[in-house]
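Aim 2, interim progress. The first record below pairs a target sequence with its structure tokens.
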Amino acid sequence: MVTANLVQKIETPEPPITGSTVVMRGVSWETYRALMSEVGGDRAWRAVYDRGVLEIRMPLLEHEVPKGLLESFVEAIADELEIEVLKAGSLKLEREDLMRAIEPDSCFYIANEQLVRGRSAIVLPTDPPPDLAIESDHTNSSVNKFALYAALGVPELWRYTQKTLVVYRRMEGGYEESEQSLAFPFLPVAEVAGFMERSRELGQRSAVRLFRQRIREILGSSRSSGN
């Protein structure tokens, strides 16, 4: 059962950052794990834990739609490249030794796909972290997600916010903004937000088809030039 300590914290949480987010402080790792075990994986909310701070977020439509489109774009790229990727969704990434855990909006295994193919569970740090994590941010967070993802070893982070996609690559000491994706160096990062906006007028699948066509053009041009 969830401990009485946790019950008290849930009953008297910090004021939420937004109507969809609740923050609790002073939560032990054991209490965090007890909560996650008690509620299981069949739930609507996502959790972030960083050394005593537990943030619980209820995804909103404005948050889920961009995330879903970015997933479709990654899958379209994989299809055009004829490579395998593993979409791991909001896979719980946690390390007890670091007292940190996060459920990304979505994540993918790309370079390391074969290492985790067919697995029923992934355990860090024995297994590699996802090659790419996606965050669709429309609210502020009480947790420094950059530091958290860096500590967990995720090589690349895509953050979509304010109608802009920003790509970050992990460097020593954290992340730095990059104009080029590590997983897909040919990706026209600056153009992605435009396809996201086109989905508002044309529909999601039409936007994905346009994006796929653009990727096909880029790859075709690269192949014809011998690069």
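The second target in this work package is listed in the same format:
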Amino acid sequence: MAGFAASAKKPRNLFAMTHKKSALVTGAGSGIGRAVAIALHDAGYRVALAGRRQAELERTAGPREHMLVVPTDVSVPESVRALFARIKETYGRLDLLFNNAGRGAPAVPIEDLTFEQWNTVVGVNLTGAFLCAQEAIRMMKQQEPKGGRIINNGSISAHTPRPNSAPYTATKHAITGLTKSISLDGRAHNIACGQIDIGNAATEMTDRMAAGVLQANGSVAVEARMDVRHVADAVLYMAQLPLDANVQFMTVMATQMPFIGRG
């Protein structure tokens, strides 16, 4: 009876009480962003969902509490500032940024790319990651307790390009440099930064691989994919480390995808 009486005194809304840390996931309206946002929420984070399509962000949030939908264009400084103002107003702090928003250009020879296509990819993949990291760092340096974690989505393309992928590959190589710079500059402020490089997670973006995609030798081949939940689990592991530990770089990929060796 004593044990029952003790348990009866526990707060009724235990779920709400566990949601103390706050996270921001960009590109949260689909694929990897959606899976990671839900995993973070289920692990006890309050999660801000950023992306261009409000309807898809609402789909991610569903009936869950402790999710904040903020339509955002990460390539526009004013939009990013408004996003972080909402987070500060709602949560008071930010413990984790998952810089995930990204897009590609048409798979055409580099000489056929337009300036607008190049600029759009750079704006979202690189400038967007920079703008969000910049605002996150400002908040993390000012909050109490100070500090936080930034995880950048690098992609396998941060190491090895696909044919006809110059804009995407260039930005993902640049993300590696951004990750290293944030890691170095954030040390003094208890801000950790790591990068996850993902290969062939089963999302809408990789559906085309089931039909076959162009390989480096000019052939077309079907590529293996993995469940996106494995990506969410990996990001969650990185996120839940104490700030005195960091996964600097992690690669999670479908075992049989062409990457190691000659394809």
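DSSP finds eight helices and nine strands in the chain. This observation will shape the mutagenesis plan for the next reporting period.
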